[in-house]
Design goal:
Number of strands: 14
Helix content: 40-55%
CATH class of the largest domain: Alpha Beta
Strand order of the largest sheet: 2-1-3-4-14
Largest sheet: 5 strands, mixed
Bound molecules: 1,3-dihydroxyacetonephosphate, iron/sulfur cluster
CATH architecture of the largest domain: 3-Layer(aba) Sandwich
């Protein structure tokens, strides 16, 4: 078989070379918010800067990446142990290089609860992750999110009022919610974590969803799972729950419509899935997998469990971002691996594993647009402000929410 895969020696920048191979797929290029690519450009040149946190002082707007990186490095040195920087795998290269701890959302939550030595935690990730850090951090610690507009579109699909309203409908329909265990994916607002804590439920992440759902089924008959339908369905399926026992609650329907479900289907259900999804992971598809396998018969395809059910079923392996990173690191030299997850992680794994051919299953380079909002200009701003004693962009979960959310998070942490 001839695949024209370049040798490690030929690949000075493996991702660029793989992009050339992938160009042969001839997939039409789609526009996305980050269509300038994943290399950092000055903040004011970003297509979407207007929709990011705009009150960053103008002195940071036009700085080139090298200058920003130097300023962050210098600030980091001056701050020393005062600050710990946590970085999610999807962060840009120019951010993740400063992370004292890098990880998936589970590992970062654990770090936040273990690193009580530093008074400031700068969380390079998205809003729900920084909230989880604030819930788990010691009382004297302050959590900072460099750009307050770094949210998560999936988390936003489960608004607390919609979830409470659905819960009330379930209570009316079943006569009680005593047998329904609410489980929220980490990608959700702190108030929903608190809701789970208050109602006998728990939080899960992509690395422990099976253990959390097993625990939930020991507590009750049914699970109410939000916001990611795909993680819920993929996990239920892994546990042997038939697809027709996992029903989809359409939260866009006005209250009183049982989320557009038939009464009998709801009665027979074991998992009630919220109709949320991740726009980044929903892009991965069976046709992409078929094309990839036709082009590289030896390929292994690994995907994140936020991908659609049929994609996960057809993949060789599925797991969290940490699982994916470990899978690639352990693969034999010469392996060809297509990955169904966010492009910054895939690109980094390609660079870190030059003896393997690593590429994204989706030929269109499209980062998670909210993770991408953590531009080094924001990191420089919050760090330099800390040096002056100013805490910019603090994430502070109200105390009563914190108390209940902590219960739900600790139920999860106790399982692993
Ligand atoms: P991980 O928990 O696997 O890091 O995933 C977080 C996330 O937001 C994936 O889209
Ligand atoms: Fe949210 Fe998807 Fe981005 Fe993860 S990749 S932070 S789920 S929008």
């Amino acid at each position: 078989m001839t695949t024209n895969i370049p040798s490690a020696k030929q690949r000075a920048n493996p991702y660029v070379e793989v992009e050339k191979i992938l160009a042969e797929f001839n997939t039409p290029q789609l526009q996305c918010e980050t269509d300038t690519g994943i290399d950092t450009i000055p903040l004011s040149s970003e297509v979407s800067f207007n929709s990011w946190q705009p009150d960053i002082p103008e002195e940071y707007w036009k700085l080139e990446v090298n200058e920003l990186v130097q300023r962050v490095r210098a600030s980091r040195e001056r701050l020393g142990d005062q600050v710990v920087i946590l970085g999610h795998h999807y962060q840009r290269e120019d951010i993740v290089q400063f992370a004292d701890e890098r990880g998936d959302s589970f590992a970062l939550a654990q770090y936040a609860s273990d690193r009580s030595d530093s008074p400031y935690i700068v969380f390079c990730g998205v809003h729900f992750m920084a909230e989880a850090a604030d819930i788990l951090a010691a009382p004297h610690q302050r959590v900072i999110l460099p750009n307050m507009e770094a949210g998560c579109s999936m988390a936003d699909m489960a608004s607390p009022p919609d979830v409470y309203s659905a819960w009330r409908e379930l209570e009316t329909f079943f006569g009680s919610t005593a047998d329904i265990i609410p489980v929220t994916y980490m990608n959700s607002a702190a108030s929903l974590k608190a809701f789970c804590g208050e109602n006998g439920g728990a939080v899960c992440t992509s690395s422990n969803a099976v253990q959390v759902l097993e625990w939930a089924f020991e507590q009750g008959k049914r699970v109410f799972f939000f916001p990611d339908q795909h993680l819920g369905r993929n996990t239920g399926s892994e546990m042997g729950i038939p697809l027709d026992e996992m029903v989809l609650w359409n939260w866009r329907k006005p209250a009183g419509n049982l989320g557009d479900l038939k009464e009998q289907a709801l009665r027979d259900s074991r998992i009630i899935l919220w109709q949320g999804h991740c726009s980044v992971h929903q892009r991965f598809s069976l046709p992409q997998m078929e094309q990839t396998r036709a082009r590289f018969p030896e390929v292994e395809i690994i995907v994140h469990p936020e991908c659609r059910y049929e994609v996960v079923q057809a993949a060789d392996a599925t797991g969290s971002t940490a699982f994916i990173a470990e899978y690639v690191a352990k693969a034999n030299p010469g392996s060809v691996i297509a990955i169904g997850t966010e492009i910054n992680l895939v690109s980094r794994l390609a660079k870190e594993n030059p003896d393997k051919t690593i590429f994204c299953l989706d030929p269109v380079v499209c980062p998670c647009s909210t993770m991408y909002r953590v531009h080094p200009a924001y990191l420089a701003w919050v760090m330099e402000s800390l040096e002056r004693g100013e805490v910019i962009n603090r994430i502070e979960v109200p105390n009563d929410t914190k108390t209940h959310a902590k219960i739900a998070l600790e139920r999860m942490l106790a399982l692993k």
